[in-house]
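input
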Amino acid sequence: MFVGKKGLSMRHRRNVPLLAAVTAGALQAMPAVAQPLSPEAFRVMDIDGNGRIDAAEHGVAMGAAFAHADKNADGILEADEASMLSLPAQVDADGDGQVTLDEFLKSARSDFAAADEDGDGVLLP
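output
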């Protein structure tokens, strides 16, 4: 799992499946048009509870979503695993039918930047 310097709080360690599920739902909305996250998604992704989601928190959430979907823990999402996250085809950058962690995180960073309308590095509710 990918965590920041402080790691995950106990609340978020217990909620990794919820974090992954909520993040998966958020992923469906973000690539096409930057839309606000649902209140539940925002609450779960706001790891430090400061009312903002920064790039590090977003990265933790994306890492949790990837790890949750990667059932065989091989660092690659096969088609059946990727379908859990409803990933658009462009996430598979090299077109090999698999989504690597690198491809996934690169796409997630791009989605974060698109959702960060004012470019300040944080998402607000």
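quick obs: The longest helix spans residues 55-69.
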